[in-house]
Amino acid sequence: MKQAPQERPDARGLRVAVVRSTFNAAIGEGLLQGAQAALLEMGAAAEAVTVVNVPGAFELPLAARAAAASGRFDAVVALGAVIRGVTDHYAHIAREAAAGLAAVARETGVPVGFGVLTVADEAQARARSGSGAGNKGAEAARAAVAMVHVLRGLGGRRG
Question: Fewer CB atoms near the end CB (10 Å): N or C, the chain?
Fold first, then answer.
């Protein structure tokens, strides 16, 4: 029998690190607001959410790894935006951010919510970081919290 995924997992008692890229600052702020609102809606205490700023998306995996390895957090939410330009730089940064964050989750066993936008233009980024439904920061926060419970249910990380 299949079980439907939880739309609003329980974040009560969880400690969450939100690692945010400050490059494309307005987009990152929108993602952060979405993530924080989602965490509060799920019952997380405001003081249990720590925001860590990094310069860009390339730096997200290193900070996420440090947060996950610290033992202080049950989950990490990574937020940022990589907007396509005229060079190959976009592809390299997007690939390394995604691969690096996936590696953090696998290596540490700490769920990492992927809230890094990889979009063609600023309009797409704004649409995915605005208030309301569709905010990818909120979606990443919900996914990270849901994975805490999945792993606990499988006998993984406890906390």
Answer: N
36 in Cβ contact with 28 (< 8 Å): no
Q: Which domains does the chain have, with CATH numbers?
A: 16-150 (3.40.50.960)
Q: Could you list the active site residues?
A: 89
pLDDT greater than 70 at residue 1: no
